[in-house]
Amino acid sequence: MKKELVGSLAWGGGILILAILASLARAQGLIDHETTTRIVLGATGLMIVAFGNRIPKTFVPSEAARKAKRVAGWSMVLSGIIYAAAFVFAPMQAAIWLGCGAVATGIAVTFIYCARQRDRRPASCG
Fold first, then answer.
1. 126 vs 49, which has greater pLDDT?
2. N or C: which end of the chain has fewer CB within 10 A?
3. Nearest to 49 by CA among 22, 75, 14, 71
4. pTM higher than 0.85, yes or no?
5. At what angle do helices 33-54 and 2-27 cross, to 10 degrees?
6. Phi, psi (rounded to 5 degrees) for 44
7. Angle of CA points 45, 92, 33, to nearest 5°
8. 24: part of which helix (H) or strand (E)?
9. Cβ atoms within 10 A of the Cβ of 74, count?
């Protein structure tokens, strides 16, 4: 638990430092506003990838929960890659729609998978 918290705080702190450095570079006239935004949002996409990669690596006792974590991990990794790539390469307006849509789709895939698995489980003998 402590290792996960330290990793999460490191990502958050790293993005804050990156945002401050990008803002300083913008204030010095080295980069423009759009580049500053793209740098920070691209890093946010990479954070989504890192968290998605960690999801299936945490222990859960149930096989169904492990499957759900694998689906969640893959959907977050893929949506994070799309999010980061959109903010690096696509025009800004398209990047917003594409990136946010990818993350929303990744979350929806996970919820739909879990709902379907819940509906498929056998009725318990009660």
1. 49
2. C
3. 75
4. no
5. 170
6. -65, -40
7. 90
8. helix 2-27
9. 17
